[in-house]
Amino acid sequence: MAESTSQWADYKVYYHNQTLDHFNYRPESYTTFRQRYVMNAKYWGGANTSAPIFVYLGDEAALDFQIGSAGFLSDNAPKFKALLVYIEHRYYGKSIPFSSREEAFSNASTLGYFSSSQAIADYAEIILHIKKNLSAEKSPVIVVGGSYGGMLAAWFRLKYPHIALGALASSAPILYFDDITPQDGYYSVVSKDFREKSENCYNTLKQSWSEIDRVASQPNGLSILSKQFMTCSPITSASQLKDYLDSNYCEAAQYASPSGDGVSRICNAIDGTSNHTDILGKIFKGLVSFNGNWTCYDVNAFNNPSETDEGWSWQTCSEMVMPIAHGNDTMFQAESFDLDAFVQDCKNAYGVSPRPHWITAEFGGDDIKLILERFGSNIIFSNGLKDPYSSGGVLKSISKSLPAIYTTEGSHCLDILPSLPNDPKWLIKQRRREVEIISNWFRQYYTDLANH
Amino acid sequence: MAESTSQWADYKVYYHNQTLDHFNYRPESYTTFRQRYVMNAKYWGGANTSAPIFVYLGDEAALDFQIGSAGFLSDNAPKFKALLVYIEHRYYGKSIPFSSREEAFSNASTLGYFSSSQAIADYAEIILHIKKNLSAEKSPVIVVGGSYGGMLAAWFRLKYPHIALGALASSAPILYFDDITPQDGYYSVVSKDFREKSENCYNTLKQSWSEIDRVASQPNGLSILSKQFMTCSPITSASQLKDYLDSNYCEAAQYASPSGDGVSRICNAIDGTSNHTDILGKIFKGLVSFNGNWTCYDVNAFNNPSETDEGWSWQTCSEMVMPIAHGNDTMFQAESFDLDAFVQDCKNAYGVSPRPHWITAEFGGDDIKLILERFGSNIIFSNGLKDPYSSGGVLKSISKSLPAIYTTEGSHCLDILPSLPNDPKWLIKQRRREVEIISNWFRQYYTDLANH
């Protein structure tokens, strides 16, 4: 027989009958839904040697695209002889409760089961199920996640230490709740990223907002702007265009890749225009260089909300209330986070109010060093300082066993992406440290297990 | 003004508008109910000095009776200048969701919110509310509980380390789930307690069960037994009488007090009868000596179930599934725990099935030393080895900061009861160690706080 021709041949899909509500015993809570997970046992050393299990905790997207990008697992499976498991987050992908996605998303009564605590308990149940099925009760489990998934990974180790030996929480802004992090943290980093690239670019961007306002306030101003920015449909307000540009800059900063980042592309384009070009002309050049050459630009992102948009919209309107605002000292127009307005919008959209203080009540965050210096262990908080979300991450080690590892040059979740031939040294070094730390967890665990 | 004439004058009652379901965002989950808690600030050093807060976590009873018996709090409040808080468990006492107790207990749809995770989250919310109200965010919180409340205390520290600095978990059988503890653990201790008192007494008790069966199988046997044991109504099976005697022996063993315990009373009575008395005559003498002189004995405990009986019945039928059985080598007739029958009984009673593996999935328990030796801190597991529930308790220290403190002579929750003038030395010593350990937690915390 030939070797499998596809790199995906070793990845097998499973479905678990998952409990709808883990914390409630109403008859409806017992309803189950099919939750998808994927396993790759190609490199696994097996239960006999208590070989480890790496579990990728799915976040706000279908699992399909996450498996390929969770390079930390596949890259390190051979070294650790690890079983690889990827679990899809409830309400995403094929892991939808109720009879259809339409029904699940139809109202707060069906969406109500869509919460981080339920998701974490799902992971607990599936990991226990897998370990039991494989008689791998002694195999140490490492949970890995990025961004929201990174928060889940950190919280999972804190809440279920009996199920996960450790967690790699990549780019997890667990401190971006309840104003633990200043509201302008995110946009300050975006601004810094651009300013460090080019002072001229930064100033151009900074001036552009009032220029958009000025043009918009003229007769036919919105029509002029629509033409200049080649929008797919006429814009109906200046905000529409500004929000669109805003999100492009954020994306450029957040996902800056070592092999060529959006911030550079935007600034090179802006700085490269002739002095005769007006500000908005420069801004458009920047947009095109980042976004590509299109016949038109779809400024209204919510025309075609993705599954992630829809799911995350509910999540932010229930518990993931992250007060992110422009603040007063960024390259964006000053704007604060209006909690009351946010709550009202959510109420209008879903009929229920967010619980903006729940995440810190349930998972903590305030005074995290004081609280966790003498409690808990085995979580790596990794960040890249070019990532705007790093402003809400853990950047100082809490204790020896709760280390923070950041790179100055890194962006969002870079360390858990697949390693590439041209990866820079600082990234290779970050990953190597993570692997070393996890190796030490295993060494300690197997020693403890032998002495047990 | 004279000093307050009542010792209760300093205890003030409050009600918190508590969220019905913390982990779900259905509109119904937002319903609130009034949850009772009591505070005594007489000894509190105040927020300015970050003086500590002791919180008693209510268990399966109305709060009323718990405050007086939670002596560890009132006895130590002056020394620690501690604020005392007592919180009632949802679905008990005056902390009943829905419009009435009848409605709350009417079916699984209203009972479904009655779970340990919800109860613990209730405590988290109320403690945060109190701290915020008193501007006492930096005051360290110690949670205290006994038996089921002791489990809640241990679990609270594990799940909410950002809210409680430490826990005193008295007589908490957190390992009596999922067969971590042998099923006969409880009855083995009961038997040992009797046997250590008197071999003759133990043998008499051991022989009595088959004697009851023998008499019951005779014509009019049940009527004979009813008369001999002066039952308030005729018994309808031998089991009824045996279950009643069983529960008396368990109570005698569990609540053995240093100032005179039921095991001694029963055995002294049994051993003191003349040799002419038959076995069941001896048994009845033992019962009377323990239970008191009554005109009749109500063998059917479920004729008048208490609030605790009714609440705990739901709790054991939902998640608190403790597989306790006589086993093969006790002074009781051999009997194993039949999970299938238990599940079926619960289904019949409530329409929903227990989740017998949930407690260990949510809170752990297996290999507790391996798991927690390098995770978590500041939980005292206290036990008395004469307490049958100690068989499911943590009797070996897990780590330096997760100590187990037991006494050979102690019974159920003895250490947290009010201290008495004639308390034995071993009990005084146990409490003193607990106070020392908690003092050290505070010392460490205030040092950390100052360096923070």
Question: Please, could you describe this protein's structure?
Answer:
The structure is a homodimer of 452-residue chains. Chain A is of the alpha/beta class. Chain A has two domains: 11-178 and 364-451, Alpha/Beta hydrolase fold, catalytic domain (Rossmann fold, 3-Layer(aba) Sandwich); 183-355, Four Helix Bundle (Hemerythrin (Met), subunit A). The first copy, chain A, contains 17 helices and eight strands. Chain A has helices at residues 64-69, 71-80, 101-104, 108-111, 116-133, 148-159, 185-197, 199-217, 221-228, 238-254, 262-272, 279-291, 307-318, 339-350, 358-363, 368-372, 425-450; strands at residues 11-19, 32-40, 53-57, 83-87, 141-146, 166-170, 379-384, 404-407. Chain A has an eight-stranded mixed beta sheet, sandwiched between helices. In chain A, β5, α6 and β6 (166-170) form a beta-alpha-beta unit. In chain A, α7 (185-197) packs across α8 (199-217) and α7 packs across α10. The first copy, chain A, is globular and about 75 Å long. Chains A and B meet through α4, α5, α15, α16 and α17 of A and α4, α5, α15, α16 and α17 of B.
Spell out the key features of this protein.
17 helices; Four Helix Bundle (Hemerythrin (Met), subunit A); globular; homodimer; eight-stranded mixed sheet; Rossmann fold; 452 residues; alpha/beta; 11% strand
Outline of the structure:
The structure is a homodimer of 452-residue chains. Chain A is α/β, with parallel strands linked by helices.
